[in-house]
Amino acid sequence: MLATRSVLITTVAAAALGMAAPAAAEKMLDSFMSLSVAGAQKAAQAALAHCQKEGFTVAVAVVDRGGQPLVMLRDPLAGAHTSQTAINKASTAVSFRTDTTELAETTQAGKPSSGIRQLPNVIAVGGGVVIRAKGSIVGGIGVSGAPGGDGDEACAKAGIAAINDAIELE
After folding, report:
1. Spatial distance between the Cα atoms of 92 and 127, rounded to a whole number of angstroms
2. Where are the domains of the chain?
3. What is the pTM for the complete model shown?
4. Starting at the edge strand that comes first in sequence, how are the strands of the sheet with 128-133 ordered?
5. What's the rounded Cα separation, in Å, for the pair 8 and 146?
6. Are 93 and 117 in contact (CB under 8 A)?
7. Count of CB atoms situated within 10 Å of the CB of 135
8. DSSP character at residue 132
9. CA distance linking residue 95 with residue 102, whole number of Å
């Protein structure tokens, strides 16, 4: 009986060790780049300043690589709708991995991707821009309130320009 018990314990231990080796070799965590709150804040402030210089009263939102808001700034005179629209533009850009100006063109009525516009919180209007560093998406910036998507996009790109050198060098 003691010999049988010893063989059973040895067999169970050997099986456990054999199973643990492959599991230990597998990677259990991903590592990826994402925009920091400091980077998001600097981009948002630069975008807002650019818009104010142009005479636009806007809201600016910066989201992380998952589309979640990091920073939201709003000119006190910006419309009530601009805050949520800026967040949705930024998260739409990240979600579809493309600027919202391009998304607006590819999702027009009658095009195969037109149904995308019906998804909740998707904004297919210019002003949402993907933020990339070293070839990877690290976040997005959305601006709302300028008189047209092209004005919103210009402000968003000014925000990215303010941090671009720093994030490429990190």
Report:
1. 10
2. 37-169
3. 0.83
4. 69-74, 59-64, 136-144, 128-133
5. 75
6. no
7. 7
8. E
9. 13
The structure tokens listed for 77 are 């005179």
Q: What is the DSSP string of 80-106?
A: TTHHHHHHHHHHHHHHHTS-HHHHHHH
| Domain at 37-169, CATH from 3.40.1390.20, 3.40.640.10, 3.20.20.70, 3.30.450.150 | 3.30.450.150
Average pLDDT, the chain: 89
pLDDT in tens, 59-99: 999 999 999 999 999 999 999 999 999 999 999 999 999 99
Q: Tally helices (H) and strands (E) across the chain.
A: 5, 4
Picking from 126, 129, 152, 108, the residue whose alpha carbon sits closest to that of residue 35 is: 129
How far apart are the C-alpha atoms of 141 and 131, rounded to whole Å?
A: 7
pLDDT at position 7 is 47
